[in-house]
């Protein structure tokens, strides 16, 4: 059985998701700057998994740093936190994980115990994430009915989290409850997380999956083949507007037009109550090459101009319910989501 | 300067569009079955170009067939027509071209003159197509305003026709008229006609083009970056419902939601008045490998189940206007399109 990420004896190990589904290769990092680079270069991705990798990276920094004093240690750890802060701008779990690690750093009164505390906190963040996902599954599986075809976008699965998954966690739980589901996985250009990761992950669990290109979603909704849509989230604003992988907004509009329920499954750590609405969320633009090349193969003319926003924002009014570990908010456009954070 | 297809001295030559934009290689066919195979394997694609290739293929069959009598010649030519009929099921221009060639075959009273007549008819179909496209451009360019960003899907350009293009013909004409336009080309999965062909073709003509993935369309419409959408068509039913490359339906819904005009540019030969409405159009499903592999590179797990409809149907009510060489039908859902065929 595969794992997404692991901390063991001052080594951070992760499955290199860039090579899936053709190769299953694990990377082992002993220096925190390599963990930061792994996040930037998408060895690991998915908002909750990025949070865990960041926490482990900060813990690893504490193991790497040879400081002469507690103050120096704290200062260098804050610099390490800043490095992680810049790796992926949209994922709120990243800053949430840094905040948790920083509060440990601030409270520390001893270099050795600080190292241990940070390692323990990173492990705790990982374990909590798996439990949170299972709780999201418990809270959400009621919405998926026996016989449903459920469409998903990108990978909000075990590979995007510490394990089990958010959107795919809800699907997993429904299947565990004996419901017969089929998943339509949108391939999710440009990075193909749906084709490479979601299809792979569901096949590993023997959950029936059908791969489609992103632009087929409307066609299959119109033909009546899709009963539900469920996706993850990278950041949810206080009014329920949700940033998620590019294409999610389009799917939400299609679902609304066709009367298909559209669910967002995410941990409370994805809620960003300081961001009032979706328009305030900064959208990361990634490289030209992600669009113009696929796995190194050139698919567009040399020198073509490309736009490559990694995320878009789905307005709360397109979302039927936001499913978290602390409960479900139906009609988030009317109810907001800030009460979940209290 | 490149060309899409050419008939010369009993040789059908075409640019191998499967290799664009990396290589510009021409194929030369001296036997009609190779032309049929070129259509099936997508050396050439695009409804009008398929019609021309079919006509040239039938003319080539007449050059290939060694018949003892006029009757035998006619019978073998009808068999050749049947072969072409099965190459691509959705493009109505294909059966329209066959119909024109068959009426020449039926009227013939001499083997040698039949060969010449078929060759002349194929050349005429080609020349007419270029003129038709230029007329579509003249009729349509009024809808594109100076400074517009115009989104298009797939390739309805010179490469999809005898030359000049339908949707891209309208853009070309607007640019020739001095309008400053920018084109957002959707890459058009799975076959990437937008990335490989539209971007290449527009760059050849120094028309400003920005490549985006299909799932970015909604995001850029919401952000106000797109002012118009124009696409081609593979088959237009009597009520104006339009079959075009998979993803077109989704774009039409997005455009409608965002108040963006959505135009279809196509020759009258694309109108199929015998098909009453979109639901009656047969949608070609293509191979698993087109989705699971990109230019030979595996992007999905071995053995994954795939759906691959090549087209979808855009209802007439999502179309602002249908632009043809015989005139423009605004609000086709109210007016129908059958009067254009009279």
Output the structural class of chain A. alpha/beta
Instruction: Tell me about the largest β-sheet of chain A.
Output: 7 strands, mixed
Net shape of chain A: globular
Largest interface: A-B, 54 and 54 residues
Q: Total strand count of chain A, please?
A: 17
Number of helices of chain A: 11
In angstroms, what is the radius of gyration of chain A? 20 Å
CATH C-level name of the largest domain in chain A: Alpha Beta
Poorly predicted sequence stretches spanning 5 or more consecutive residues of chain A: none
**What is the count of structural domains of chain A?**
2
Helix content of chain A: 25-40%
The overall pLDDT average of chain A reads 95
Give short descriptive properties of this protein:
17 strands; homodimer; about 350 residues; Four Helix Bundle (Hemerythrin (Met), subunit A); 11 helices; alpha/beta
Task: Give a verbal description of the structure.
Two copies of one chain form a homodimer. Chain A contains eleven helices and 17 strands. With 342 residues, chain A is of the alpha/beta class. Chain A has two domains: 5-134, translation initiation factor eif-2b, domain 1 (Four Helix Bundle (Hemerythrin (Met), subunit A)), CATH 1.20.120; 142-341, Translation initiation factor eif-2b, domain 2 (Rossmann fold). A seven-stranded mixed beta sheet of chain A has the order 6-5-4-7-10-16-17, with helices on both faces. In chain A, strand 12 and strand 13 form a beta hairpin. In chain A, helix 3 (70-85) packs antiparallel against helix 4 (92-107). The two termini of chain A are 37 Å apart. At the A-B interface, helix 7, strand 6, helix 8, helix 9 and strand 13 of A face helix 7, strand 6, helix 8, helix 9 and strand 13 of B.
């Amino acid at each position: 059985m595969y794992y997404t990420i692991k901390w063991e004896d001052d080594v951070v190990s992760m499955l290199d998701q860039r090579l899936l589904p053709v190769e299953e290769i694990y990377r082992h990092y002993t220096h925190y700057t390599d963990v930061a680079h792994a996040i930037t270069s998408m060895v690991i991705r998915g908002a909750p998994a990025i949070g865990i990798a960041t926490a482990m990276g900060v813990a690893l920094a504490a193991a790497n740093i040879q400081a002469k004093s507690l103050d120096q240690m704290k200062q260098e750890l804050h610099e390490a936190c800043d490095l992680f802060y810049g790796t992926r701008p949209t994922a709120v779990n990243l800053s949430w994980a840094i905040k948790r690690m920083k509060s440990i750093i601030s409270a520390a009164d001893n270099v050795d115990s600080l190292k241990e505390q940070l390692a323990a906190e990173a492990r705790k963040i990982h374990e909590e994430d798996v439990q949170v996902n299972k709780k999201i599954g418990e809270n959400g599986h009621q919405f998926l009915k026996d016989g449903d075809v459920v469409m998903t976008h990108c990978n909000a699965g075990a590979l995007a989290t510490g394990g089990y998954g958010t959107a795919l966690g809800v699907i997993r739980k429904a299947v565990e409850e004996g419901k017969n589901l089929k998943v339509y996985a949108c391939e999710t250009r440009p990075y193909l997380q749906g084709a490479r990761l979601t299809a792979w992950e569901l096949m590993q669990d023997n959950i029936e999956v059908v791969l489609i290109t992103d632009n087929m979603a409307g066609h299959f909704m119109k033909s009546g083949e899709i009963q539900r849509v469920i996706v993850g989230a990278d950041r949810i604003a206080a009014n329920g507007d949700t940033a998620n992988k590019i294409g999610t907004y389009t799917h939400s509009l299609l679902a609304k037009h066709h009367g298909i329920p559209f669910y967002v499954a995410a941990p409370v750590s994805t809620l960003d109550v300081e961001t009032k609405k979706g328009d305030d969320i900064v959208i990361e633009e990634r490289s030209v090459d992600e669009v113009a090349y696929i796995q190194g193969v050139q698919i567009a003319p040399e020198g073509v101009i490309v736009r490559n926003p990694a995320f878009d924002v789905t307005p709360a009014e397109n979302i039927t319910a936001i499913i978290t570990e602390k409960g479900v908010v139906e009609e988030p456009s009317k109810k907001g989501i800030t009460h979940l954070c209290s």
